[in-house]
UniProtKB/TrEMBL annotation:
Gene3D superfamilies: P-loop containing nucleotide triphosphate hydrolases. Keywords: Transferase. The keyword ATP-binding does not apply. Belongs to the sulfotransferase 1 family. The keyword Ribosomal protein does not apply. Its EC number is 2.8.2.-. This is Sulfotransferase. It is an enzyme of class 2 (transferase). It comes from the Eukaryota. Pfam families: Sulfotransfer_1.
Length: 351
């Protein structure tokens, strides 16, 4: 009786997937039932480990990711059509993405929106609303947006590692700016941020346990070393395509890096602009203090359901000294040396 066998098999498969989604979602607010069956099936085949904010994170194409992100990334990989004029900002979470979005938006749109204007979009909108993530906004929730009507140059952002960007992006002349931050501060920033996002009925993430996960590479879009090395190698091979920046360097001399970004993007500041103080104006407009104090960043929500206020914490280099024990410092130093030593990626870790 072939028909009934087929039915039985298909019912069983769908029941397994439904039960799987319920089990995974259990108690952590992650609604896996919203995923496509294709994505649920894929998850069943992927290695998984305990997640920071979701019960599990999954290893997709060599990096760790939450289920809803995987679905959005697959859609982005399948549907996004790059243009040579596109600019993509890339980072691993908590490396200074919000800041880079603000700076890049201000540079690229400075003819349209004067930096000194009281109506500058950065005064009324969070940078994540002005520069959308592929995986959290554009291709999230099963959306396939029509981006063809957006005027050039289009500005997007992603946390996807370089190795998982589709060939069309790699082969096009679109430009990528990567921001990277020392793993000590990135870990602490991620740990505190994740704890703020957890719902009240879920216990906080313990520092020691989360640190162990981070050192095993188990963090969203991690391992962090692979993420950094992917963009770093491409920036060495194709410096006109990938600009590799470090948060700490930018904190030290933001005007130098503003000029570098503008030049890389093909819109260098003119002598006149420099004399008029446009570069310093952008630095001030996008400064941590200025952005943290804006009403939109105190009250609004831009990425998923996250409150903007959590995106602006301390904005300093070296805050990790207030959290990490000497043995954690030793372990993470050794790990960074083992994974990044000799690559040319080095960090300033003290203020
Ligand atoms: P801390 O948690 O150490 O304060 P991301 O934007 O990738 O999520 O990174 C968040 C980190 O960047 C946070 O670090 C945050 O405070 C800091 N940050 C946000 N806006 C900034 C700005 N305008 N200038 C410098 N740092 C900023």
């Amino acid at each position: 009786m072939p028909t009934s066998t087929t039915n039985t098999t298909s019912i069983t498969t769908s029941m397994v997937i439904t039960q799987f989604a319920k089990n995974q979602a259990n108690g952590h607010g992650e609604d896996l039932e919203k995923l496509t069956n294709e994505c649920k099936e894929l998850l069943l085949s992927l290695p998984k480990e305990k997640g920071w904010r979701t019960p599990y994170i999954y290893k997709y194409q060599g990096f760790w990711c939450q289920p809803q992100e995987i679905q959005a990334i697959i859609s982005f990989q399948k549907h996004f059509q790059p243009r040579d004029t596109d600019v993509i900002l890339a980072s691993i979470p908590k490396s200074g993405t919000t800041w880079l979005k603000a700076l890049s938006f201000a540079i690229m749109n400075r003819k349209q929106f004067a930096i000194s204007s009281n109506n500058h979009p950065l005064l009324a909108s969070n940078p994540h609303d002005l520069v959308p993530f592929f995986e959290y906004k554009l291709y999230a929730n099963k959306q396939v947006p029509d981006l063809s009507k957006l005027p050039d140059p289009r500005l997007f952002a992603t946390h996807v590692p370089f190795s998982s960007l589709q060939d069309s992006i790699k082969k096009s002349n679109c430009r990528i700016i990567y921001i990277c931050r020392n793993p000590f501060d990135t870990f602490i920033s991620s740990w505190i941020f994740s704890n703020k996002l957890r719902s009240e009925n879920v216990p906080p993430l313990a520092l020691e346990e989360t640190f162990k996960m981070y050192c095993k590479g188990l963090v969203g879009f991690g391992p962090f070393w692979d993420h950094m090395l992917g963009y770093w190698k491409e920036s060495l091979e194709k410096p006109d395509k990938v600009l590799f920046l470090k948060y700490e360097d930018m904190k030290e001399d933001v005007t130098f890096y503003l000029k570098k970004i503008a030049k890389f993007l093909g819109c260098p500041f003119s002598m006149e602009e420099e004399k008029e103080g446009v570069v310093e104006g952008i630095a001030r407009l996008c400064s941590f203090e200025k952005m943290k104090d804006l009403e939109v960043n105190k009250t609004g929500k831009s990425i998923k359901n996250f409150e903007n206020k959590h995106l602006f914490r301390k904005g300093e280099v070296g805050d990790w000294v207030n959290y990490l024990s000497p043995s954690m410092v030793k372990q993470l130093s050794q790990l960074a040396e083992e994974k990044l030593g000799g690559s040319g990626i080095e960090f300033k870790v003290f203020p």
